[in-house]
Design goal:
95 residues, mainly alpha, two-stranded antiparallel sheet, 3 helices, 4% strand, extended
Length: 95
């Protein structure tokens, strides 16, 4: 996910299966995207503005995961709350 992008309306889902014969089908799902030059430029700018990988944080979380102390119950509770709110908002907008 790239944060800061408000809309990707210019991106279009194009199933690759429609352009190939059944014998030439790859085994996995694939998506092709067609982006306008302005949208592509915006995505590149946004990605370029993102911070570099912070190795110290990666090492900290890696150690926590390996020790079994991550994710904590607080982290899981927060994730459940966030997912619930997202699903509730999605249900309201569909319905």
């Amino acid at each position: 996910m790239i944060s800061g992008i408000s809309s990707l309306a210019a991106a279009a889902y194009v199933p690759l299966a429609s352009s190939r014969s059944p014998a030439a089908q790859p085994t996995g799902d694939q998506v092709a995207m067609s982006l306008s030059p302005d949208t592509f430029t915006s995505l590149v700018r946004t990605a370029s503005a993102m911070p570099e990988v912070r190795g110290e944080l990666v090492d900290t979380y890696k150690a926590q995961i390996q020790s079994g102390s991550y994710p904590s119950s607080d982290t899981l509770d927060g994730l459940v709350d966030l997912m619930g709110a997202t699903w509730a908002q999605s249900a309201r907008s569909q319905g």
